[in-house]
Structure formats: C-alpha cells, structure tokens
Amino acid sequence: MIKLVIFDADKTLWDHYNISEFEEPFSVIDGNVLRDSKGRTLKVFPNVRRTLDELKKKDVKLAMATWNFPHKTEKVLRALDLDHYFDVIVSRDFPFKFIMISEIMRKLRESGTSLKSEEVMFVDDRRAHFGNVWLYLGKIKCLEMWKDVNDHLEILSKLERS
C-alpha cells in the first residue's frame, strides 16, 4: 500500500519547464496561473489540487523532489497556495532525484514516519530519473507523467492498485 507520493514540479504539476528562471515579483491570475516580472507564466495542470486533496483525505503523505533553486520553489509554491499540501519539500540545484528522495525519506523517518520503498510512489515527467531511484532505493513505484498517466486523477487509481 502506498503511504507516500513524491511529485516532481516542472512539467509534472505545472506546464513550465524551469521555475528557477522566474523573477519576482510574481502575480497570480485565477489561482492557477503565475506570471513573473518578465512576463513568463506557468499554469498548474488540471486536477492537481483535486488530486492532492484526495491524497490528503486518504492520509497519504505528500512530498516534492524538484530540480530547482530552493528559494524559487518555496516562493512559487507559496504564491500558488500549494505549499501546505506537502509534508516535505526537497528542492535542489542538481538533477539527482534518488538523492532528493533519500532526503525526503530521512526527514520523514526523523519525524516518526518510517517507510519501505514499496510504500512510496514517485511521479515525474522524465523516466530518465527512475533508473537510479530503483538502483539506490529499491522498489519505489515510479509513474511517468503524460505516459503512464495522462491526468493527475489517474494517480489515485494507480495508488489503489499498489
């Protein structure tokens, strides 16, 4: 049974490929679109909030592992009012998701939640990250966004089959 779902951010939760380029001040349009001072925008994908709400109702822990500058991730999540969903957010300026996931699991363990790898699901838009996750962390269930699932709500059905 899955007890933790870890999400990537860029191209997984929203349509922009690199929020580290965003510059303040930010403005939020209709709650799901963020514009930076240079006019760059990102849009939260449909059903992201609904999926996060449903996962929380099921008492699933939520985390984020993203290759972005930590201060940018924090500010974008806060501006979009998404930060409160996540129990742990690990944002690093390097692409090694298996290291970020290890850090997430360590932080959860330190706060009293120990998980086996088969109780963890990782959702990312790039399958390239999965090899090292499996190699170093074991049987984590990995879903490639837009290939294994085409809508965030489909993650809920994958959760139930685990």
TrEMBL record:
Gene Ontology MF: a single term: acid phosphatase activity
Top-rank lineage group of the source organism: Archaea
Name of this protein: Magnesium-dependent phosphatase-1
Organism of provenance: Metallosphaera hakonensis JCM 8857 = DSM 7519
High-level lineage: Archaea, Thermoproteota, Thermoprotei, Sulfolobales, Sulfolobaceae
